[in-house]
Amino acid sequence: MHLTETRSKTLPHGAGPVARRRGGPLLLGLFGLAVLLVAAIGLSLAVGSGQVPLGDVLSGLFHPDRTQRAQLIVREVRIPRTAAGVLAGVALGLAGTVMQGVARNPLADPGLLGVNAGASVFVVFAISVLTLTEPRQYIWFGFLGACLAAVLVYGIGSLGREGATPVKLALSGAAVAAALGALTSAMLLTDSRTFDQFRFWQVGSLSGRESGVLWQALPFIAVGCVLALALGPQLNTLALGDDTARGLGQRIALARLGAAACVVLLCGAATVVAGPIAFVGLAVPHAARLITGPDYRWILPYSALLAPAALLLADVIGRLIARPGEVQVGVMTAALGATPFILLVRRRNVVDL
């Protein structure tokens, strides 16, 4: 009896009547975020560089006529772009939340495991050495590089008696990212053609994404989402520290291995879809935590809805501020996310996980 009482007071689940009282408002919050995401999807489909009336947007969605230029823009440009934003946003939001939970580091993001650096070096290799020019060709090298980099970082961080501790993972991730970044720069400096092609992918963008690439990335994101949402209770226990988690019966190594697999799937697929995009995986979990508190069973679904909505809205703003051109979404997320994130991390209760 005493152990049960102690556990209910210690775990960040918010067990008991308090959790039940908070469940109703949090469910309403999820519904509100779902409405926000639908609105962001609508804006992404309706707003762009081309002049497309709202009627053609609706017709292009439900009754497309490919002989109409406006409807063709909707089908061939805006729908794949919006789908890419939703897929990449969900993946980045969940990956960032899982990384912050398993590393117990409020500044952890998908770049912590060297995922972006690994993807970049393999994409450069595919363009420069293998002379691949189509995104659907070299994009899988980006996914392979992301996976191998994450495995390398986890392998280095697992060396030693204590295994893959949060500090060792962060240090090994920084070291691997620095080494891979240097290798990428060395290849780019010796090949101007590769640099011209790579720089558009490196900045992070939702434009020009083929539906075939999205369909290929979808299964990886779906599996990663299911795994991430299932990790909520384990992340709650890991937040208490390794010793307490072991005392509560948590299998630390297995939980971290599952989290690593989840991050590899989500980060690799997000990088495949949109390139390396900053701030989404870093800032969104903090914003979700402001609403939900420390319970990862709620933070994860909140992040899964908030991240794609934020990414699509940033992309829409990027299309509007530089007409008839546009600012790529990777630039917009960094520009728009910096100030709110600084305000978030200045609040002590947000930084403490």
From TrEMBL:
Database matches in SUPFAM superfamilies: ABC transporter involved in vitamin B12 uptake, BtuC (SSF81345)
Location, primary (coarse class): membrane
A single GO cellular-component term on record: plasma membrane
Domain of life of the native organism: Bacteria
Compartment(s) where it occurs, according to its Swiss-Prot or TrEMBL record: Cell membrane
Membrane-traversing stretches: 26-47, 82-99, 111-132, 138-157, 169-189, 213-232, 253-279, 299-317, 329-346
Sorted UniProt keywords: Cell membrane, Membrane, Transmembrane, Transmembrane helix, Transport
Pfam family, one: FecCD
Membrane topology label: Multi-pass membrane protein
Family as reported in the entry's similarity comment: Belongs to the binding-protein-dependent transport system permease family. FecCD subfamily.
The protein, known as: Iron ABC transporter permease
Lineage: Bacteria, Bacillati, Actinomycetota, Actinomycetes, Kitasatosporales
